Amino acid sequence: MEARPDRRYGLGHAALRLGRGNHSNVELRARALPHLRGLHHETWETVTLSVLVGRERVYVDQLVSPREITLSVELGRPFPLHAGASGRAILAFLPGDSRESVLSEPLERLASHTVVDPADLRELLEAVRATGIAVSRSERHEGAAAIAAPVFDSHGVTGAMGVCGPEFRFDEDSLLRWAPLLKTAAAQLSRELGWR
């Protein structure tokens, strides 16, 4: 992993080979960057890009918030799909058999509000499919909050774009303001990746 002067971080070549679909993660990150910059400018929170890797997700890019109290993510590390907004944004749009396969496994509790009951998760995933947005608070990391939208390519869901930060800044007004921006950015990126 390498730090860059513009507060971005990049992955090494091995990590960039992760993922699936008909695009490389280098291409995905390049296409996503203008959308991430737009979200970053609108929210001034950390914005992230995750990709689906097998039955997990991996952060492949982020623009870190310039605020004094901030949140950054660990690039290249796999995270389960059931915990957190980005994971749930991906999980909600997997084919039904793949989704049920994830839900049938023991679900690890990562923080105080990690949802580990499959029935509760199914309800949350239905809400994500209905709204196109996933929200989490203290699910993957204590005190952290996030909002995320799925990213699709020509094969289906391939990842998620998210906005994350300290939970106290993610009030309902902020989420209502950011949700349409995030959905628009994710939809534009998905079109660029061949989603119809």
Please report which band the strand proportion falls in: under 5%, 5-15%, 15-25%, 25-35%, 35-45% or over 45%.
Answer: 15-25%
**SSE pattern, N- to C-terminal:** EEHHEEEHHHEEEH
What gyration radius follows from the Cα positions, in whole Å?
A: 15 Å
The number of domains is: 1
Distance between the termini: 33 Å
The major pleated sheet works out as: 6 strands, antiparallel
* CATH architecture group name: 2-Layer Sandwich
Helix content: 25-40%
Question: How do you describe this structure in short?
Answer:
This protein is an alpha+beta fold. Helices cover 38% and strands 24% of the residues.
Strands, helices and their partners?
Layout: E1 2-3, E2 9-10, H1 13-16, H2 25-43, E3 46-53, E4 56-63, E5 78-80, H3 85-91, H4 96-104, H5 118-131, E6 134-137, E7 144-153, E8 156-166, H6 172-192
Antiparallel strand pairs: 1-2, 3-4, 3-8, 4-5, 6-7, 7-8
What keyword list fits this structure?
Beta-Lactamase, disordered N terminus, 6 helices, alpha+beta, 8 strands, 196 residues, 6-stranded antiparallel β-sheet, two-stranded antiparallel sheet
Tell me about this structure.
The longest helix has 21 residues. This protein has a single domain, classed as 2-Layer Sandwich (Beta-Lactamase). It has 6 helices and 8 strands. The protein has 196 residues and is an alpha+beta fold. 38% of the residues lie in helices and 24% in strands.
